[in-house]
Design goal:
The protein is mainly beta. The protein contains two helices and 15 strands.
């Protein structure tokens, strides 16, 4: 988890954070802007693995959200593939140790009972109701601040309009792939043809710096050229609970 970095912003009436994310020169993303709703949006995180025999139903459920009427408006799904089942005979090509660690961080924070797959989180809390509902969006009157991301000429900028805090904010950015097929050749799902949506291809966390005029420092993203979507959310340092979320399709 990120270490605390105390800053004092009491003399600043409002906060506008800016981060420049320098993308790969040949990515060629078209100019686009995504902005969160006024009320708090819903982030759904699936922790899954191609090496887990009980995960394909959860993967299929997440794919049904492609037809949800609030997708990319108040609903933002992401699928983190963990690596702790790779030893069973199949190495998940989408898995990453950092994604597994994120799930362990949720357990350490007390927001999930144990680390398991398929594991679903909704707005930073364990959520098992996905098994009997297809609608994770709830009526929410909370006004957490507006999060906007803008992409132009391979530069992504993000602004978060929220009152300052002594604990720095963290910008979380997930680059996603859609309609990704995979033929599993070993392990518990051997022989199965799987199809993944909202799968996290690259994940970065940028902590607020002491220089509030610049907000987060620029960062180079190493990501696949065929990224389909982006989801960004803001958290507090050492607390994975999302405060606000935005994102959408890039192509």
């Amino acid at each position: 988890m990120l270490n605390d970095m105390k800053i004092h912003l009491s003399n600043i009436p409002s906060l506008l954070f800016l981060v420049a994310l320098i993308l790969k020169p040949d990515s060629g993303f078209a100019q686009t802007t995504f902005s969160s709703p006024a009320t708090k949006a819903t982030l759904v995180e699936l922790y899954t693995s191609e090496g887990c025999s009980s995960c394909p139903p959860a993967d299929r459920w997440l794919s049904t959200l492609k037809s949800h009427d609030q997708l990319w408006n108040t609903l933002f799904p992401v699928a983190f593939h963990v690596d702790y089942w790779d030893y069973l005979g199949w190495k998940d090509k989408f898995a990453n140790l950092r994604f597994s660690q994120r799930q362990y961080d949720y357990r350490k924070a007390g927001f999930v009972s144990t680390v398991y797959t398929p594991g679903m989180m909704k707005n930073g809390r364990e959520w098992r109701a996905w098994r009997w509902t297809n609608d994770p969006v709830e009526d929410n009157s909370v006004l957490p601040g507006n999060l906007t991301i803008h992409i132009e000429k391979n530069i992504l900028t993000a602004t978060f309009d929220r009152k300052p805090s002594d604990i720095p904010y963290v910008l979380n950015i997930a680059l996603l792939g859609m309609n990704r097929p995979s033929k599993v050749g070993g392990g518990e799902n051997s022989g199965k043809a799987l199809l993944h949506d909202f799968v996290v291809l690259d994940f970065q966390q940028i902590i607020q710096t002491k220089n509030v005029n610049q907000g987060w420092q620029p960062i180079t993203l190493q990501h696949p050229e065929d990224t389909d979507a982006v989801v960004a959310w803001v958290t507090m340092t050492n607390n994975p609970t999302p405060l606000q979320v935005t994102g959408g399709l890039l192509r």
